[in-house]
Amino acid sequence: MSEESLYQRLGGHDGITALARTVFNNHCKNEVIKNRYAKSDPENVVQKVGEFMCAGFGGSEKYTGEDMLTAHTGMNISDEEFNAVVNDVMSALDTHNVAQKEKDEILVALWSMRPEIVHV
């Protein structure tokens, strides 16, 4: 018997899109990083984050954004900002009652991307 993908365990496209929206809303309230999102298009951010998560978690969606290194080069993202993003994601997972196993998998994925995102 095969285990469901992370994509399936998070509720597929709809569940992950709802999660992406909560993450974005958390970022917009987070004093450490909210200025980075002040002039962004919320629907575009939610779409791209949702695509990225869906594709990365085992869904059939295509990610249409830039790779992490390209997207974050020149932004001078600090460790503090990266940690704020991780905390916002973990908070969103709590909001959506995501189980610990899935939280752990997502946390590992986030930390694996850190070298492509943090550039000070």
From TrEMBL:
<keyword id="KW-0408">Iron</keyword>
<dbReference type="InterPro" id="IPR009050">
    <property type="entry name" value="Globin-like_sf"/>
</dbReference>
<keyword id="KW-0349">Heme</keyword>
<keyword id="KW-0479">Metal-binding</keyword>
<dbReference type="GO" id="GO:0019825">
    <property type="term" value="F:oxygen binding"/>
</dbReference>
<feature type="binding site" description="distal binding residue">
    <location>
        <position position="72"/>
    </location>
    <ligand>
        <name>heme</name>
    </ligand>
</feature>
<protein>
    <submittedName>
        <fullName>Hemoglobin</fullName>
    </submittedName>
</protein>
<dbReference type="InterPro" id="IPR012292">
    <property type="entry name" value="Globin/Proto"/>
</dbReference>
<dbReference type="InterPro" id="IPR001486">
    <property type="entry name" value="Hemoglobin_trunc"/>
</dbReference>
<dbReference type="Pfam" id="PF01152">
    <property type="entry name" value="Bac_globin"/>
</dbReference>
<keyword id="KW-0813">Transport</keyword>
<dbReference type="GO" id="GO:0020037">
    <property type="term" value="F:heme binding"/>
</dbReference>
<dbReference type="GO" id="GO:0046872">
    <property type="term" value="F:metal ion binding"/>
</dbReference>
